[in-house]
Fold this sequence. Notes:
Helix content is about 80%, strand content about 0%.
Amino acid sequence: MKSPNRIMNGWQLVCFSCVSAPLAMVGFAVVSFVPTFYAIDMGLGLAVVGAVFMFGRFFDVFTDPLIGALSDRTGGRRGPRVPWMLLSFPGVLLFAWLLLSPPDDIGPVYLFCVVSGYLLCVTAFDVPYSSIGLEISPHVHERSVLAGAKAVFQILGALIASVVPVVIGAQMGVSLGTLALIFVAAMPVAMAAFLMWTPKYTPKVVHTHPSLWGAWHNCLRQNAFRRLMIAFFAVQAANAMTVGLLVLFVTHVLQAQALVGQMFLMLLLATAFFVPVWIFLSKKIGKRRTWMSAILICSVVLVTSYSVGPGDALIMQAICMGLGACMTCDAVMPTSMLADIVARDETDSGHPRAASYLALKNAASKMAFVAPMGVAFPLLGLAGFDKTGANDPETFGVLFFFFAGLPCLLRVAVAAYLWRKLEDQIVVAPAT
């Protein structure tokens, strides 16, 4: 964007977005490595770990909207929403360390407490932080740029999480412990840069606020927001199943456990490369059509995974690159579209609601995480999935279905829904 048309210069954009990198590093590990690590390496079992993470995500469904609504009402000398970030920051550091670097003899209670604490503190930090990105710019395209810049740093954090196991070449427990050290060193630096150089902005002063329920109701009654969330939830559920089962897929279908880190690296490199491609395309054909294109392309890639067998590393690398290229659009476009909805609603109502909208979006995203943890993992366990590799074709069929079959069906349904239900020009009903 040309300088007169933007809120942040390049350095400010970096300082705002850099907080996403360490957060995404841990978040990626929690989605991709931690469940399998606790289930298999720590011996807790797939069903137990799936139940713990499923409960944690259900807990998030309630805490996200609550923290979002409270954040919309909070101010501070360093800017709106920053007090929540400062308050939750120590807990983020502590529980991320405990989750990634557990003692040897732990049980389900330890995992339950640490996962709950981590999710609560990350919610209290990330909802206010990400809300700033939604409301700081009045320009439609800069909202895509902000979402894209944040996505780039999220990809950087995820790349670190995927590269560390490859570089270290040790057991997953050692790799996760290394990630914990990197996180506690990098997060304070990123937070300091954010506080010093992110532009301050002054939201509208509102002397009266609706009740908490009223704030959520005003968000949910917007047709554009509801339709966006339906599509976003389905796509996130598809992505959660595919990414959450990638370790098992590479280990047991490709039969190449040593290539797990490499496959994640391929996925994330493609994700980073395609961020500017999707942003450019959205400016040309619109955000909705851009997202639909990525959804349909990813469906084709998922179907291709049914051709993977033992030793087909090149095919699997191509699949991971295709998945990464499309999944970055799943992150950037819905966030940018949500920023448009927030801007229109706040203009009409005069109330700051960015955090409430974002918290409801996050709740949908975290509910989607239940798909691999609460559905795929337990059903694989019931199907008799054997971590030693002695599985029959029917068991592998279950794995293929949750890794590719069901995600593909969800994506095709979302593409049809977007074509019929979601407009390019966001129209928001007057708020009460």
